[in-house]
Amino acid sequence: MFPKLLLVLLLTLLACNAFAEERINACVKFQVEDGWSEGISVDATVYKGIELNGISEGSRYTDYLTYVAIIWGIHKATFIEMETSLITEQGTEGVAQDGQTWKVAETFFCY
Are 25 and 107 in contact (CB under 8 A)? Predict the structure, then answer.
């Protein structure tokens, strides 16, 4: 009985965490003609599409995909649809709403 209860509790906690925004320190680069731009150190927020749809009260985002939001200033933000849900230290590529390709790395070091 106890192991089943523990398993149900653990799965519930994992499910709740799967749809929680996550703030990360990131190094972002955008694609240029001959490779990648210089790295820009930013505070970013990782969301699932279902969260963004709830915040925006719309359905612009695919529920199960991962998005990175970078706030540059008042009324200026970039939302990047990531290729995978795992953002690595080496960088994971994604595409912003304007079609620009970005590379997002979860790291304190930016080069």
Answer: yes
Q: State the pTM of this model.
A: 0.78
Decide: 110 and 41 in contact? Cβ < 8 Å.
Answer: yes
Q: Looking at the DSSP assignment, which residues form a beta bridge with residue 22?
A: 46
User: What is the rounded distance in angstroms from the CA atom of residue 42 to the CA atom of residue 44?
Assistant: 6
Q: Enumerate the domain spans of the chain.
A: 20-106
Extended beta strands in the chain, E state = 22-32, 35-36, 40-48, 66-73, 76-82, 92-96, 101-106
pLDDT of residue 40: 95
Neighbours of 53 (CB within 10 A): 16
Whether the CB-CB separation of 3 and 31 falls below 8 Å is answered with no
Specify the pLDDT at position 16. Answer: 43
Instruction: Looking at the chain, list the stretches that DSSP marks H as alpha helix, in order from N- to C-terminal side.
Output: 2-18, 49-56
